[in-house]
Amino acid sequence: EAITVQELANRMAEKGADLVKALFKMGMMVTVNQTIDQDTAELLVEEFGHTINRVSESDVDIDTAVDVDAPETLKARPPVVTIMGHVDHGKTSLLDALRGTDVVRGEAGGITQHIGAYQIKTKGGDLVTFLDTPGHEAFTEMRMRGANVTDIVILVVAGDDGLMPQTIEAINHTKAAGVPMIVAITKADKPEYNPQKIRERLLEHEIVVEAMSGDVQDVEVSAKSKAGLDELIEKILLQAELLELKANPDRAAEATVIEAKLDKGKGPLATVLVNRGTLKVGDILVVGTHSGRVRAMLDDKGRQVKTALPSAPVEVLGIGGVPMAGDTLAVVESETRAREVAAYRQEKATAKRTTTAPASLENMFSALSAKQAVIEYPVVVKSDVQGSTEAIVNALNKLSNDEIKVKILSSGVGAITESDVSLAAASGAPIIGFHVRPNAKAREMIERNKVRMKYFDVIYHLTDEVAKEMAGIWGPER
Ligand code: GDP
Q: Which parts of the chain span the membrane according to its record (predicted)?
């Protein structure tokens, strides 16, 4: 599993000292002779722009085979959009209204199949994929499993209401994921509609929309009257253009499971989003711990399709079992190999269940992007009163320096909830509780996801502890 820095340097034909330097930037103090774990090694390989196929663990560990597409093979792909916001603010209605703008559906009169995602063709001929499960739970669940399929988040806020708890949660989750946001102020047909009030409230969360001279796109829409839908789609396409979303369509497919179920007649069914390559009927595949062959594929209009391109959602028939949302589907060259990989993963999954490795600082920082010049120390803060929360946030921000910055993923008042835990887990952050404790469900999630949780009653104990952890990242040498 582990490899010394020098050995990795040799394999990449790079200088050991350069790897040490890169590791330092990632927040790890190691010498060339020390060993680093697989995740860190992979980050380094990517950082140096190399492609390696691991030979250890035999060839079955396809998860760790780093295989990057050459730039000239990349072609533009449609954006994948998730809709988030408070309950009853109109997420489902907006998803339905957007679905109604699909020119293909208009022409062919296709029937709607809820497969977890759908794709529309705009009047201009562009494609946009929407995840059909609104809300940040699904979004964060996927992130916790290492799957980042969303390119753009639409934050839905009802213009006759205000920023509600789940609106704030959605903002925090989106920010933590680093995904660009478009604000849709919906229910524009209502007499109480007051979009300006929403824009002003968003400022408090450091979201400055275009109408307030900021750079976050916002749009006034109504799912009922359909006003603003075209504008929303235009803004999505504009954002997608800025992101320069690309994938290589001419290779063995890789896809992410969006949802999966067991159908009495058809057997296991999984909706996947193709990440790269083209998924074809007849392809041999591995997904999670299951192997199989694509027997048939259905799109969101219930039509049989033979191929699926990057960003396309399709329901796949022919998998040997029911995979989990967030699992990666990979096409392999033979059935023998598919079974081999599936068996290997099963073994690994069993081994993982029997070992209990608490989330460590190392894990936390190895997850950080090597490209970040300043290291971020993410935290989730909860306290019993607003005054304390503000005091803690201020005190924590003061601990930041040129090399390491405290990043408050969210700060709030009240008991620690499932949403706090999922946010912390997805970002590898500890939760800091001041005079508050987790509720029962949150406690269970903390244990399951091995999230680090610290309680304090005195603010300077809290800042001392965090300062110590931050210093620890640099090792005793500094
Ligand atoms: P969700 O919980 O965020 O998915 O919200 P829904 O889409 O279920 O909408 C909640 C309620 O608001 C429903 O009664 C909808 O009919 C209503 N609603 C949603 N969008 C609009 C809109 O644009 N205009 C009006 N007048 N009502 C809307």
A: none
Name the band, by pLDDT with cuts 50, 70 and 90, for residue 79: very high
Specify the DSSP class assigned to residue 386.
H
Q: Cα separation of 24 and 370, whole Å?
A: 10
Q: Is the CB of 190 under 6 A from ligand 1?
A: yes
Q: Which atom of ligand 1 is nearest to the CA of 86?
A: 3
**Measured between alpha carbons, how far is 475 from 370 in angstroms, rounded to an integer?**
18
C-beta of 87 in contact with ligand 1 (< 6 A) = yes
Closest to 151 in 3D by CA, of 236, 90, 225, 215: 236
Whole-angstrom CA distances from 419 to 90, 161, 170, 223, 473 are 20, 22, 10, 28, 27
pLDDT tens, residue by residue, 134-188: 778 778 888 877 778 899 999 999 999 999 989 999 999 898 888 999 999 999 9
> Which residue's CA is minimally distant from atom 16 of ligand 1?
93
Q: Which atom of ligand 1 is nearest to the CA of 96?
A: 7
Query: Edge-to-edge strands of the sheet including 375-383?
Result: 404-413, 375-383, 431-434, 453-456
